[in-house]
Specification:
The chain has 108 residues and is of the alpha+beta class. It folds into 2 domains: 1-33; 41-103, no CATH class. It is built from 1 helix and 5 strands, in the order αβββββ. The chain has a 5-stranded mixed beta barrel with strand order 1-2-5-4-3. The longest helix is centred in the N-terminal third of the chain and has 28 residues, at 6-33. The N and C termini lie far apart (81 Å).
Length: 108
């Protein structure tokens, strides 16, 4: 027979074990979500609002989340594109670019 105080202790140990496992997995998830962009990475967005040297874009084709550097933002048509030195990406929600310049593109 177990003592009455033993059951709550076992439960606490199990809960602590689950918490440790969850916390150990958290950095892996965070690291994947904030992996750096590759130089020249292209993001296509439904709406791009340039206010050079900055720009703001929404409804983008990426799941990247976090800082970005040396990337390209293009509108859906591909006729307009901008190269940005720095910025922040919030997944498909929005991109904020800094130190951007318009790229010459061929319309079609």
């Amino acid at each position: 027979m177990t003592s009455p105080g033993l059951a709550p202790r076992r439960r606490a140990i199990r809960v602590a074990g689950v918490l440790v496992a969850l916390l150990a997995a958290a950095p892996i998830t965070t690291a994947a979500a904030t992996a750096p962009t590759r130089a020249g990475e292209l993001f296509r967005c439904a709406s791009v609002t340039p206010d050079l040297p900055n720009l703001y874009a929404t409804s983008c084709d990426t799941d990247h989340w976090g800082p970005a550097s040396d990337f390209v933002v293009a509108d859906q048509s591909g006729r307009n594109a901008w190269m940005c030195e720095q910025g922040w990406v919030e997944g498909s929600l929005w991109i904020s670019g800094r130190n951007c310049r318009r790229l010459a593109t061929s319309g079609g």
